[in-house]
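quick one, 451 residues, struct below
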Amino acid sequence: GGGVVRGGSHNSWLSSHAELTMIGIFVLGYIGIIFEEVFEFNKAAVALLMSTGLWVTYADFYGGSTGLASDGVLDQLKDQLAEVSDICFFLLAASAIVEVVDAHQGFKVVTNLITTKSKKGLFWVIGFLTFFLSAILNNLTVTIVMVSLLRKLIPSDDDRRLFGAMVVVAANAGGVWTPIGDVTTTMLWINNQLSTIPTVTQLLLPSVVCLVASLAFLVNQVEEDSSLAESTLPPPSPLAPRGQVVFGAGIASLLAVPVFSELTGLPPYLAMLTGLGAMWTLTDIIHMDEEEEEMKVPAALSKLDTSGILFFLGILMSIGVLDKSGLLKDLAVFLNENLPSQDIIATVIGIASSLIDNVPLVAATMGMYDLADYGTDDKLWQLIALCAGTGGSILVIGSASGVALMGLEKVDFLWYAKKVSVGAAVGYFAGIATYLAQSQFLNALSGGVSP
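---
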């Protein structure tokens, strides 16, 4: 019976150190993901193992658990899966729509407009295009669309990685200043911490400054050469009528998402799946009597980055446990008690969101500060929206668009940290400084006292 006794004592050790174990699993998992290139394990595998390890520890050993998952934990698991599959299905449907438009060469509409042969010029054009697109569409969609575009525009892999990273920075900055642009701003908006007009008017300037500062820093890494002029990519040619129809329908289904959610009150992924269903039917009608399948949706689905979607699942389920077990809340409370001012707290939350997905972080902050104390459109909420949104760009793993880029362009953590993190951080701090200066200025104008 030695084994049984040892098993028993082992379990009691786990029960009394469940928090530590969970933090340990999380740290090990992150190390596995960060050094993916070194260990040669796929990051999706690491993320899935990390999330199961965390859920098992939480369900069976955490907080006086009896060694089997309680109903309460099973409910939390259901909630978490519902939240995560929300994002995963959204991603799946959006990528499929973009892929179908791409198969019909629909993006020629955009690529034909971009005629510059200067790489630095293109860098700025793509940056601003991404910035304004991600204010209407969500960041993930924009990143998927822009990376597809870059494949048509930029022949060299290394250049494309850098441009892809810039798209992530631009998309995260652009998502901040409209309620529908970024998940975190949307969350704050749905829960009445932010309202539409003040968000747009007060966060637009800081977001633009963040974008410009980052791009100005990153553009120095773009080396001018003649690769665009000698591009191996096909020259501009007019879009076939069928392609125009598919492009129109695809863009319409992406743009209809926020409208659909607003009108029905149902989550965005349903709108995206509706759009996919419509595109599927449309392309089936267009190609009714044709033998070849590659223009239809099943062909597009087979090209999707499934391992990337599983990576998402693993990462978000892992962060979910930290959230449900109250560990993130503890972190937020710790910050609140040990940092002197709210401006600094928001800044630190933004930096933390470059490591941890910003959704649970913002959710934890929303739970910590009461709407009664900090009313709608309070400086705190605006700063948190700005920081959590733009802070996610500092590390590639910190935002949904960064994670999508890891899957789409095989960008790894360390490459991004070397090439892009400093530039993203420059923009991040420039954006915060702009916001604080602007709020001082507006206070002075209104003759009010800063709260």
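Residues 1-10 have pLDDT under 50 and may be disordered.
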